[in-house]
Structure formats: structure tokens, C-alpha cells
Specification:
The structure holds 2 protein chains of 2 kinds. By secondary structure, chain A is mainly α. Chain A has one domain: Cytochrome c-like domain (Cytochrome Bc1 Complex, Chain D, domain 2, Orthogonal Bundle). Helices cover 61% and strands 0% of the residues of chain A. The termini of chain A are far apart. Classes of the chains: A mainly alpha, B alpha/beta.
Chain lengths: 100, 447
């Protein structure tokens, strides 16, 4: 019973989310992810040299950023990846995985 | 006349611009003979992000200023707001000249023509309405902008992104004096003038550059220019000197990189030294230390302030120079002006003044306006980054980056714990990355 109620609540939440998305509600992670676009292109579609992010899965993106956080060479991406929390990186990766 | 990018381009006029061989969004159309040794390449088939037609959001936005911040906000209002968000971009110039990369015009590594961009992609693919014109007034009560010709534009939200204006240095009041002593800090004809002066200087001469009082546009820029010129002298003008007069007490950005570069290039650095007056004809300056210094080429970069459209309309409220903003939305902090957003180098936002950060401020502003049209509160989880590359010679560049996050306690942007970071040493790989960074940044803003 409790599970069924929870499902109903979730379903209703999902439905209103879908409606909101149609109306243009900013998806979670979009504004954070837009910090990537100056170097990696609008929606991650890089035009010159830099890695293309569009088309990568959320898990690939999360894995790469987690690795970059730990790199010892202190490259520019080590600094960038290290500035975001794991939750923020998850939101960025989830959003980027939806754009093409 | 005070120096502004607007004034310079207006002074160049339509005739001046038509003399330039190219004024287009994409450098790859240029014949290779007009490019530097390493052309900046922005593909003409850069991806187009769709403008959704299904969103219910509607609203009218007028954007004043088509530089890095203004152009980016216009583009992102459409791709994030959808086709019902009407966006009108008002900009007096027929082309945008990139400041970024312009120091490499001085040593022939980049052609000036490859730094020209336009707004054709914004109008063609993103449905932005463009008006080539000048704003004469803003009426925040009735939400109207008046153009120089007398016509008016109504708005629900106004975004003002005018770039900077410069103080007038004693001795450089006249156009004739300004022509002799270019700041070349808002590239137009001035970067070419400075290039000619540097390249026609006799070996054994002196190049003197002044660093304005912070905050100013592109913090590493003056130091970068000093290095690029000193490296050019090393090869082509042996025995010449570079002197840096810095009004600030120490190097403002990339202190590690520039301290090393100044030492290896023999650059003479004078901190806490302001330029008090200039003799343009005799090419000398009087400094705040009471000394008079003569040079063969003078590059005096005056102190900055917010664009005139802001001061003329009561939107400058920080230290008499800058426009205060709420960094979650970029709304003006002037009472009664909450429908006016201000982005880019005119703001007092606690972040560096640069095209890269102006681009991100534009995205935060676009997101906040779209949310406001939907009746939603602004996102509290706001971050920005300043990634920037600096050439120190014809073959090597450095980089600097800082990431900022919104701090709810102070309601300000704070640099994150692990940043800023800067390159361990300049390299040719960094120079290559700089060209890629520039191509992507300009595409994200203009294409």
C-alpha cells in the first residue's frame, strides 16, 4: 500500500516535471554545465581541438572528471574538476548526457 | 572624447570599416595570406543549437551592447528561453573586434582581420533581432529604451552590456595626442597603430607600457603585452628596452609566470607607479614617483569605469565607477531598476573583467530571466570560471584559471578553495590550446 502510494506520488511528480519541461523549466545541471561551453562548445559541441562532450554518457563524464580531480600534474582541468562537488559533477554529467 | 570601443568604431565609421578586407563571423574564409603564421580557425559549419518553439514562456528582452557578454546573453536567451522570448540586440558597430588574442597582432602571430566577428549567426539561426544604433536613454519606470533617432523599444527585461570606458589622462585629451599614444585596449585601428609604432622603432629604443589601477579589463593583459613586445625586440630590435609602470603594488595576475618572464626577458618593472601626465609629442611621461621617463613608443592604458550608457542613466552605484549587481541574476542593485540586468566588464561582481567571465555572467543572467518569465526563483547554485591563456612570446603561452561559487552568507561570488591555478611554466602546447580556447569561446558567444 505504502509503496503504491509512493509510486503514485512519484508518478505525479514525474508528470508535472514533464509538463514543466515542455514549458521550458531549466533542467537541473544546465547552468553549471554551461561553464564547460566556453572551451568545449555550446552544449559540449567543441569546434576546434578541445574534447567534444556531447554524445558522452553520464557515467563516462563522471569517471573522467573524477580522474581529473586526482591528477597530479595540476593541469587546467584538474583545477576545474576540483572546484565542483561530487553532486555537482553528477548534475553536470546527467545534463550533458541529454544534449546532442 | 573619452575612449570607448563604441566611440572608436563610430569614429572609424562605415567607410572605415569597409576599408577592412573582412568583417565576418568566420576566420576560415580568409585567404591564408592574410592570416598569421598560425591561423585562428572557426569553422563556418559550427553547430547550430535549436531554438525550441514549444515553450510557453514569453517575454521581451532588449540587450544593449554586442560584445562578449551581450552577444552571449542574446543567444542563450533564445536557446534556453525558446522562440517566444523576443530578443532585440542594440549595437552601434557593424563588427565586433576581439580584444582576446590582439596582443599577438603586435608580433605578427595573428592578423587583425581574423579578430573581426559579426552577429549574422545570431540573427539567422537564433532569431535575434539586431538594431544597429545607439541608446540615448533608459526609462526603467515605463520599461522603454530610446534610440538616438528617437524611436523607442519596450521591454520586460533590459540587459546592459556596454563594456568599459576609460579616464582621460592629462596630456591625452586631444584626438591628435590619442593617435600618437594609443592604449590599444579596445582593438580597432589602435592596435594597428601600436603595431606600426613598435615595428618601425629603431633598435635600441624603449617601449613603455602602463598598467591601470585594478579592477581593469583582462588582468594578465598588460603584462602579457610587455612580454610579447620584449620577445619581439629580442629577435628583431636587439638592444631595446621594455618598461612596465604599474599603478598597482604588485603584478595583478599570474605573478609566478610574469615574474619569471620579466626576469628572463630583462623587462624593467616599477610597481606602485602611476602615470600622472603624458607629453605625447615628446613621448615622455611624468610618474607618481616624480620622475620623467622618455620612451620611443608609449602605450598608456588609462583607468577604467563602467560604460557611459550606465552612468548617464543612474546605474553606476559602486565607487562612482561600477554598476552594482545581484550576482544570482545580474539585476542592478539601484532602487527601482530591478528589471535592468547588467553584465560584463561594467559590473562590480567580485570577479575579473574578461570576455570569458562575461560569457558566463551572460548565461547566469539568461537563465535568471527565463526563470523570471516562468515565475521561478533564480538558481542559487551559481558558479563561474575565468579560464584564460596568456602568450609570453611568439611560441609559448601560460594559463590562469579561477572558479567562483555563490556564497549565500555574503551573497557574493567567492573563489573556490582549490583555485586559482596557473600553469607551472609557459609552453608551446599552451599556445596551441589558447587558439582552441579562443575558437570555442568565440563560437559559444557569436555562433
Amino acid at each position: 500500500m505504502a509503496i503504491r502510494m509512493l509510486s503514485a506520488i512519484l508518478l505525479s511528480a514525474f508528470s508535472s516535471l514533464s509538463l514543466a519541461q515542455v514549458a521550458g523549466t531549466p533542467p537541473n545541471g544546465r547552468l553549471l554545465a554551461s561553464n564547460c561551453f566556453q572551451c568545449h562548445g555550446t552544449n559540449g559541441k567543441a569546434v576546434s581541438g578541445m574534447e567534444r562532450l556531447a554524445g558522452m554518457s553520464a557515467s563516462e563524464l563522471k569517471k573522467e572528471l573524477a580522474e581529473m580531480k586526482l591528477e597530479s600534474d595540476k593541469g587546467i582541468m584538474t583545477v576545474h574538476a576540483g572546484a565542483y562537488t561530487d553532486a555537482q559533477i553528477a548534475a553536470i554529467a546527467a545534463y550533458l548526457a541529454t544534449v546532442r | 572624447m573619452k575612449f570607448t570601443r563604441r566611440n572608436i568604431l563610430a569614429a572609424m565609421g562605415a567607410g572605415g570599416l569597409s576599408l577592412l578586407p573582412f568583417s565576418r563571423a568566420f576566420a576560415d574564409d580568409l585567404p591564408s595570406s592574410l592570416l598569421g603564421t598560425n591561423p585562428i580557425w572557426i569553422p563556418s559549419n559550427a553547430p547550430i543549437t535549436p531554438v525550441p518553439t514549444t515553450y510557453a514562456t514569453a517575454g521581451r528582452v532588449v540587450v544593449i551592447g554586442g560584445g562578449m557578454a551581450g552577444t552571449t546573453v542574446a543567444k542563450y536567451l533564445r536557446i534556453w528561453g525558446g522562440s517566444k522570448v523576443q530578443v532585440t540586440l542594440v549595437e552601434p558597430s557593424s563588427a565586433y573586434v576581439a580584444n582576446i588574442m590582439s596582443n599577438l597582432v603586435l608580433n605578427n602571430q595573428v592578423s587583425q582581420s581574423s579578430l573581426y566577428f559579426n552577429w549574422n549567426r545570431l540573427t539567422t539561426y537564433y532569431g535575434v533581432q539586431r538594431i544597429q544604433g545607439t541608446v540615448s536613454g533608459i526609462d526603467p519606470v515605463n520599461r522603454k529604451v530610446t534610440l538616438a533617432g528617437g524611436s523607442t523599444l519596450s521591454y520586460d527585461r533590459l540587459v546592459v552590456a556596454p563594456g568599459i570606458e576609460m579616464d582621460v589622462v592629462p596630456g591625452l585629451e586631444s584626438a591628435a595626442a590619442q593617435a600618437l599614444v594609443p592604449h590599444a585596449w579596445m582593438p580597432g585601428t589602435q592596435i594597428s597603430t601600436l603595431r606600426t609604432q613598435i615595428q618601425s622603432m629603431a633598435a635600441g629604443g624603449t617601449f613603455l607600457i602602463s598598467v591601470p589601477k585594478a579592477p581593469y579589463r583582462c588582468p594578465p593583459g598588460p603584462y602579457e603585452r610587455a612580454c610579447v613586445v620584449a620577445d619581439y625586440f629580442r629577435v628583431y630590435k636587439p638592444g631595446s628596452k621594455v618598461i612596465v609602470l604599474d599603478e598597482n603594488p604588485a603584478i595583478v595576475a599570474e605573478a609566478h609566470t610574469f615574474t619569471n618572464a620579466f626576469a628572463s626577458l630583462g623587462i624593467i618593472y616599477r610597481p606602485s607607479t602611476a602615470v600622472v601626465s603624458v607629453d605625447a609629442v615628446n613621448r615622455s611621461v611624468v610618474t607618481s614617483a616624480g620622475t620623467t621617463i622618455k620612451a620611443s613608443v608609449l602605450n598608456i592604458i588609462p583607468n577604467h569605469r563602467a560604460g557611459r550608457v550606465l552612468s548617464n542613466n543612474g546605474l553606476v552605484n559602486v565607487g562612482g565607477r561600477w554598476a552594482g549587481v545581484d550576482v544570482l541574476t545580474y539585476q542592478s542593485t539601484v532602487a527601482g531598476a530591478s528589471n535592468i540586468h547588467i553584465i560584463g566588464d561594467s559590473t562590480s561582481s567580485g570577479q575579473p573583467k574578461s570576455g570569458h567571465i562575461g560569457n558566463q555572467e551572460a548565461k547566469i543572467c539568461a537563465d535568471a530571466i527565463v526563470r523570471a518569465f516562468l515565475g521561478l526563483a533564480p538558481d542559487q547554485q551559481v558558479m563561474t570560471n575565468t579560464a584564460c591563456y596568456s602568450p609570453v612570446s611568439a611560441t609559448k603561452a601560460s594559463w590562469l584559471t579561477a572558479i567562483y561559487a555563490y556564497d549565500p552568507l555574503s551573497q557574493a561570488m567567492k573563489v573556490t578553495a582549490n583555485s586559482p591555478g596557473e600553469a607551472l611554466s609557459p609552453s608551446s602546447d599552451n599556445l596551441q590550446e589558447m587558439r582552441q580556447w579562443f575558437s570555442n569561446l568565440m563560437t559559444d558567444s557569436f555562433a
